Known about the structure:
single chain, about 280 residues, alpha/beta, eight-stranded mixed β-sheet, 8 strands, globular, binds D-malate
Amino acid sequence: xxxxxxxxxxxxxxxxxGKGRALVLVHGxxxxxxxxKEFSAELAKHFRVIAIDLPGFGESENIGYVHSMELMxxxxxxxxxxxxxxxxxxxxxxxxxxxxxxxxxxxxxxxRGFVMFHSSSYKDSDEKKIDRERSIETIKKKxxxxxxxxxxxxxxxxxxxxxxxGRVRSFGVKELKECLKKVQEIANTASxxxxxxxxxxxxxxxxxxxxxxxAQYPVLFIFGKKDKIFKLENVLPxxxxxxxxxxxxxxxxxxxxxxxxxxxxxNAIIKFANRCFRMKVE
Length: 282
Ligand code: MLT
């Protein structure tokens, strides 16, 4: 079910389905809650699942000209507070993971677990910041072509099927085409203002490795071996830091594991969430 609330006078859209312990899904850039549709329907067979459109994305309105990760975290908190939910697991995809880390800094007591889904606790390098500046200029001039290239990079390039692999590989060229189309349609709904505000927010975000290091809740990391946005060797070291962690490395996925390796990532999150919810809270 789709619902609306307000946060800092802006309309915010979220979905709420299923019953029981709660999971909140926070999408990445340049997407919105629609991207979780099939995935959240599966999770909702086990849990209550809330997915939120971050400010500026989907049907949520812009709040200012820079959407910081802290602002996004506060928006998530507002939605969850309005629902009367106090402790939950946050699943953050990429930029949603950055927002999740800001959430972990501001509201650690509300987390029972945290899933870093193709995300990073490291701040942008100087080089990446320059890249973000270039992206902002391109978004302002050629939003649609920027989005086309960006979304194309989110998926791994499928390798030809090896003999006998047809039966086991569930995400091939056909699935890639379908998913890419869907993801591009979702991305195309984002305005230039929202894309710029989020890009500024990501560029200015703090390094938050320390949040993982001192996390009082379990953390599940999901990485794609073929992720073109985060090179595995660059993001893997962060997974060493939390006291209670799980790591899933997807052999054939890029940056979109919930499409490219749906069953594997679903199973990992369900198992992880059940473990987190069984743990005693002090
Ligand atoms: C995302 O998928 O949310 C973005 O690729 C994250 C980023 O650009 O750093």
